[in-house]
Amino acid sequence: MSAQQAITSPDEHLQQLAQPEWERLPETAGPDPTYYDRPMLKRPVWSADIPIYYFLGGAAGAALTLGAALQLVSRRKRAELRRLSELCHWTGIVGSTAGAAFLIHDLGRPSRFLYMLRVFRPTSPMNMGTWILSAAAPSGILTGLLLNRPGLPGAVGEIAGYISGVFGAALAGYTGVLVSNTAVPVWNESRRWMPVLFASSGAVAAASFLDLFYDNEAGRRVTRVFGSAARVVELAASHQVEQSASRIPRVGAPFRRGRSALLWRAAEALTAASLVFSLSRKARVAGVLGVAGSLLLRFAIHEAGNVSATDPRASFHQQRQRATAPARTLS
Amino acid sequence: MAQTLSAREARGLETRAACDDTPNRSLRKGFFTDTTLCIGCKACEVACKQWNQLPDDGLFFTGMSYDNTVALGASTWRHVAFIERPVALSNQDAGAFSWLFSSDVCKHCARAGCLESCPTGAIIRTEFDSVYVQPDICNGCGYCVVACPFGVIDRREDDGRAWKCTLCYDRLKEQMEPACAKACPTDSIKFGDLDQLRQTAQERVDRLHEQGMSEAYLYGADAATQLGTEGLNAFFLLADKPEAYNLPPEPVVPTKRVRESWLSFAFAAAGLVAAAVGSAFLSTRTQL
Fold first, then answer.
1. Is A306 left (phi over 0), alpha (psi -120 to 50) or beta?
2. A83, A190, A71, A172: which is closest to A129 by C-alpha?
3. How many C-beta atoms surround the C-beta of residue A171 within 10 A?
4. Between chains, do A69 and B15 touch, taking CB under 8 Å as contact?
5. Phi then psi for B76, rounded to 5 degrees?
6. Measured distance CA(B285)–CA(A140) in Å, rounded
7. What is the span of the domain harbouring residue B203?
8. How many CB atoms lie within 10 A of CB A26?
């Protein structure tokens, strides 16, 4: 139980606090002091493996969910949907196992990757995510091997498919919680929308993959509806993420300036273009653009975090904003 | 420290005590770093490196100040900040200049971001109420690095694991004080029982105020003044805004706000399932 301490909202507490003592101090080092502009936080140590994992895990999770949904509607021998369901599960299998490989590769001590499972720790989204991945990937593999077999194996595959569908949805979304549960200002400040953005971007990637590898008309209808909905939600969520971070201009800066902004805008443009192509029934083009957009989005978020963590003013402004929020002066 | 707690604060502390695995509260140890006594000698940095056998992390000349250590890190567990100011302290009459020195260290927060985010359970709370990384468990995932609101803990590149101040756990086991406190020639770094330290610190602030140094205040001394971390077991006496020392003004352990994120996650996952089922059904019914 060591880490499972009570979780309470600090904003509630902050409202009760008196003005901090240093507010009364004169501005000796200018109005916006830093320590020689040195970073206050540590730069995330995560390499490119991690945004690639976000992408693969997201695509795999959403594909497993779609696979389970197709199982549900194609009970009565709709062979073409059944095949698409299988393809979904195999996308999930490849994505989650390759994603896990990238995760392990990024560890400082890869041989200790199983230590992730020595505790069950709800306060750590990374721990929760490892459990989700450890449920989604094996059940996905079981489904891929057994679904559509006759008799008992087929029944087991059917059940495993639904289980993988549920854990798949969690797999696509938890990474949004993972980045939000950090001190990195841009990630932390957009915590209300990050999980929606990650889940919808995973769904875009999944639909786009399927568009690239499946060209049956009944299947195309599924990916068109699912993919278009996901693209619309992703565009809306990315707007919301940017908005919520930009309530404090310095915190939202990585979305407006530099390499992270370039990646962010490119990702948005690619997703918007893939939406247009998907609706105009050019599935292959939509698929290529959708995959590229989802991948770039993950790199944009990763890079934005790197920039934000090394900008001391982003943290200071975020916290000062909190300290001087109207709710506080009322108390 | 004579202070009345509100009902809510008392409840919070009770909850914390109930969830805590610290067997004996009287063992709670910590640092009180009185920066007004620091002379910038860096003996603490050296003593820490020596005792803990920390590798060097490169010889840099920053050119910005006497501070060539720059920041806390995986191999630097004490860091002396050098702040040159174009103003005098309020009890000085030596012209428009003053030095501030501050020996920074891991805060061993009452609610520790690194500990709560650690997915392997490598980071634990010890019987001294300090936060300790078990090197034989850490698998170097790097999550604690982004979870620390003070930017203290870091991953060592050659070694792959995360490291930070241990509050000299090995020395405490032998009833010795941590190496930095032992080496400090001005007693700027005070080590002891937390309750005692808080009392000492408050007396020191009162005394400085009497002497005309009105800037002096305590940073992170208890949950009442820093609820985001529920108080620091290594707290400070400062004489300028926290930012001047590269300390966050209102640090909050990320876990304290993560509920909003999990809520959003629940909506997102449910939405994903609904969208998948919806589009699968829709495609069987209509020609889209």
1. alpha
2. A172
3. 33
4. no
5. -130, 105
6. 27
7. 7-252
8. 11
> Does ipTM top 0.90?
yes
| Same domain, yes or no: B188 and B267 | no
Handedness of CA B259, B261, B264, B268 (dihedral sign): negative
Q: Let me know if residue B1 belongs to a domain.
A: no
Dihedral sign from CA coordinates of A52, A53, A57, A60: positive
CATH number of domain containing B175: 3.30.70.20
Residues of A in contact with B21 (CB under 8 A): 1-2
Q: Is residue B135 part of a domain?
A: yes
Residues of A in contact with B218 (CB under 8 A): 21
Domain for residue A6, yes or no?
A: no
Element (H, E) at B81: strand B78-85
Q: Which residues contact B183 (CB under 8 A, 6 or more apart)?
A: B43, B44, B46, B47
Do B181 and B287 share a domain, yes or no? no
A26-83 pLDDT, tens digit each: 877 778 899 999 999 999 999 999 999 999 999 999 999 999 999 998 876 678 888 9
Residue with tokens 């001590």, as numbered in its chain:
A109
Looking at the structure, tell me whether residues B117 and B258 fall in a common domain: no
Query: Is A331 a member of any domain?
Result: no
Q: Check A3 against B154: CB less than 8 A apart.
A: no
Q: Is residue A26 in some structural domain?
A: no
Find the domain containing A297 and state its range: 45-312
Domain annotation covers residue A21: no
Residue A215 in contact with residue A248, Cβ under 8 Å?
no
DSSP B229: T
The per-residue pLDDT for range B126-161, each reduced to its tens digit, is 999 999 999 999 999 999 999 999 999 999 999 999
Alpha-carbon gap, residue B160 to A108, rounded angstroms: 4
pTM of the model: 0.91
Q: Closest partner residue to B279 among A7, A78, A226, by Cβ?
A: A226
Counting the structural domains of chain A, the total is 1
- Count structural domains, chain B: 2
Gap from B186 CA to chain A (nearest CA, Å) = 24
